[in-house]
From TrEMBL:
This is Swiss Army Knife RNA repair protein HAD domain-containing protein. One of its GO terms (molecular function) is magnesium ion binding. Residues 14-31 have a biased composition (Polar residues). GO terms for biological process: nucleotide metabolic process. It holds the Pfam family 5-nucleotidase. It comes from Rotaria socialis.
Length: 199
């Protein structure tokens, strides 16, 4: 489970976040190693296919959870960013243990802890290691992303992209049922510069 909800609620007045107003604040000092490259992926429709998203759209949350429970031992199909994530892992392996911290990968997904078994089964099947996984349960991803301070954030939801892009670099993955995208996926990086500080 992610630690960032607690971190942001316990922020001091000098580095205050207005989470209640959905406006995150850049931290005064970064907890991350200098020069580290951090890449954040969404789950369904990005790392994974939109199979589970289609179930959610058609039947709602209960149908989604039932489907994921019934298929907990069946890996999810590959999504449009699967190969890129695998290539990043190859780079990490080539860097070796001493230099692995140069590149760090994250999963920030709207899934909650109730529907994680199939996700972990999928990553195990792919032999894909994601360094940190955060299940936000439908909360706004922006405070989590500000805490991570990524080089890029990939998501197939335009709502998540629009909320996050004033603060972090984003890439809109146009793919699957959520975007009515029948053709090959497109990836549109944001053109707005991320905000350095939020007053």
């Amino acid at each position: 489970m992610s630690r960032y909800i607690v971190d942001y609620r316990e922020t001091s007045d000098n580095n205050k976040t207005t989470l209640d107003n959905n406006v995150p604040v850049s931290p005064q000092s970064s907890p991350w190693p200098e020069g580290q490259l951090r890449i954040v992926f969404d789950g369904d429709g990005v790392l994974f296919s939109d199979e589970a998203e289609i179930v959610y759209q058609r039947g709602g949350l209960d149908a989604f959870r039932e489907n994921e429970q019934n298929k907990k031992d069946i890996p999810l199909p590959k999504g449009p960013m699967h190969m890129f994530a695998m290539k990043l892992q190859e780079i990490q392996e080539e860097l070796g243990k001493d230099n692995r911290a140069i590149l760090r990968t994250f999963l920030v997904t709207a899934r909650d802890h109730v529907v994680t078994k199939r996700l972990f089964r999928t990553l195990t099947e792919w032999k894909l290691k994601i360094d940190e996984k955060h299940f936000v349960g439908g909360l706004d991803k922006t405070p989590f992303l500000c805490a991570i301070d990524p080089a890029i954030f990939f998501d197939d939801s335009i709502e998540h992209i629009e909320r996050a892009r004033p603060y972090v670099p984003t890439a809109y993955v146009i793919y699957g049922a959520k975007n009515n995208a029948a053709a090959a996926p497109q990836i549109l990086p944001n053109v707005a510069q991320p905000t350095e500080e939020v007053d």
